[in-house]
Amino acid sequence: MLARARLVRWGGAVDPARVVGSRLSWSVREGLLLALEDDDGTVGFGEATPLPDFSPDTLAEAEAALESFDWGSSWSFADRRSLRGLTPSARFAVETAELDLRGRREGMPLARLLGSPGSMPRVPIGALAGRLDDDPESVARDALTRGAALVKVKSSGRDLEQDRAALSRLRAALGPAARLRVDLGGALEVADVPRFLEAFAEAGVEVVEEPCSGRVLAELGKMAVPWLADETLVDEALHAALIENPACDGLVLKPTVLGGLGACLDLAARAQKADKSVTITHTFEGPVARAAAAALALACGADVAGLDEHAALAAFPALPCGMLSGRAPLAVEPSAFAGLGLEGQLPMYHRAFSSSSGRTLWER
Fold it and tell me: Domains (ranges, CATH) in the chain?
């Protein structure tokens, strides 16, 4: 039985040259570590680390949602309606902490609690090499040397000729067999999508994430390069249109943004039923959210996991994860460890909550 819920802020400064989106960069990654403890002292962890100017909720909103949540009521991951009042990242934290606690009590990996009882194949990991206009060749080469299944680069969509030249250099550096993915982050006007993707096709780009955004993406037709939906998935009203659009090749799911593990499992199942690919990835969160996303990737049988080590992890305590060994070829691997399978959770817990920012939200 749940005995207490505790919360602490964590995170810190990061390198803005390495923590980048298609158009934004971040110098700080700060989030919330949620700890749920039962009567026997077993602790489960969750993380709410919304990405500023990207996530639908802010850190302050997530914190307020967790502070006002009725911890003593009847709620659970199985009853999704009981968690609807939480913000997206707060819901992710609560779901993860509950399942981590349950997994630790039952000696069961969190991925197994989410997925089917059958075998779980390894999920290949893709690596983010940065922005095209930042000359990502050396980072991309290193990722492939470490065993990444593919390399993703970000494009601002501002200059087609600049992107064309950068992709040409990248392709020359990596060789013809390397798998390349470009993330446009919704940067293009719909009229510009065809010519950009035709240029990307010439460079052997395998797939493009979010070429444009919103309703126009949901109505976008077949292009020279297959395209995936990402940020537009924040709008639940467009889910059906995207999944039913035969031109949409797949979905990119970020549990921090989309409202947690349950919401992403549901979307993944709908996408796979429509014969679309599923990619699970991060929003530069800490190790708890990364491990939860890895468990999600295994549970839903994702095609790719964008869960390589990223620069923002330097702002958080180092917590090695059994599902993310770092061995080549890079992949999310089924683990026998209970819950999230993070090493050093309890020492980290005691250190974190002995700080002045650690506090008890609720106690029975």
Answer: 2-110+343-363 (3.30.390.10), 123-332 (3.20.20.120)
